[in-house]
Amino acid sequence: xxxxxxxxxxxxxxxxxxxxxxxxxxxxxxxxxxxxxxxxxxxxxxxxxxxxxxxxxxxxxxxxxxxxxxxxxxxxxxxxxxxxxxxxxxxxxxxxxxxxxxxxxxxxxxxxxxxxxxxxxxxxxxxxxxxxx
Length: 133
Known about the structure:
Layout: H1 2-23, H2 32-54, H3 58-84, H4 89-95, H5 97-127
Helix pairs in contact: 1-2, 1-5, 2-3, 3-4, 3-5
């Protein structure tokens, strides 16, 4: 029965990862729904990281936590830089396209790594479904 639970949890993690990835684009959140989605996705990735840390899988933990903190750190960095230059955040991001490129490429790399990690766990749960332990 525990194997069905792992399959469902990993499928849920894949769905949450998809929603989190689509809503963590470079422009800061302005509506409450996007903020709730980002907070929930970050919490889910942090919990996944803690689960991997308990299993002594530190490499997977690093990717989970980095991807969970990446949008929040980027939004904080951009807001600090834009306020120092006395610009709005959207004006700063529009004028500096290279910042968007670097963030989006980093987000894509970390998102791909987290997707592979969760997909690997999903297939391992399916493989363990019929194993005789």
